[in-house]
Amino acid sequence: MKNFKQLMLLCGLSLASNPFSHAQMPVDNATSLATPHEMLVEQVQQFVTQVVSNSADPLAADPNKRTTVDVFPIDKRVRIPQCPTGYEFSLTDNALTNSYATVKVECDATQWYLFVNAKIEQLQRVVVTAEMLSPDSILTQQNLRFADIKTNSLRHSIFVDINHLVGARVKYRVRPGQPITPNMVCFVCKGDLITLSAETEGLRISTKGIAQQDGNIGDTIQVMNSRSEKIVLAKVRAVDTAVVGI
């Protein structure tokens, strides 16, 4: 019980003035028609959502990420008595680090309590394929879309902006709905005839070159100058474009 109360204090919620106690919850027409079990599930969901929100670092907020809370139904055979002092809610100390959390619901007035399970998922908005793509397919606004993917299922770097991928080519067959990762695409692909530029203050020289490696924007790759047939190192700047430093 000590651990439960400590977490409540850390989250800025006291058990004595719990904003999600039964007595303080607003009741609308839809809620008034719900069963006690459904009403308690709704209050648990609001409580966990509020705790997650309070624990988030506002300086590290990411508009492409969100958290969902799904409370498991309470067995209808469980008796839920009325609580004149209002229900109190608390979480275990490590609840927010796990995918599943156990919420303790209790009523001091009647010495009644119940444990309710909830699933907490972190979702990331990422760019995925909108259709089956064959090798060498060019990515466009039409064959890409956004999807919310569980963060614990993302094993590699991802893209969150479709515009950053338009023009790139996929290296192999990709199924619909698959998140795009850097190793799946190339903005300059091995064997491509590309524009090879050398830039300095007020001067820009361009020629053609043949890419010796795959590369994404920002990658440094080997390119063979088509005129001199010398191999140089160049940084990929855009689709079919790389720049040599002077």
TrEMBL record:
It is found in: Periplasm. Residues 124-186 form the SAF domain. The lineage of its organism: Bacteria, Pseudomonadati, Pseudomonadota, Gammaproteobacteria, Alteromonadales. It holds the Pfam family ChapFlgA. This is Flagella basal body P-ring formation protein FlgA. Belongs to the FlgA family. Keywords: Bacterial flagellum biogenesis, Cell projection, Cilium, Flagellum, Periplasm, Signal. Involved in the assembly process of the P-ring formation. It may associate with FlgF on the rod constituting a structure essential for the P-ring assembly or may act as a modulator protein for the P-ring assembly. NCBIfam families: flgA_cterm. CDD domains: SAF_CpaB_FlgA_like.
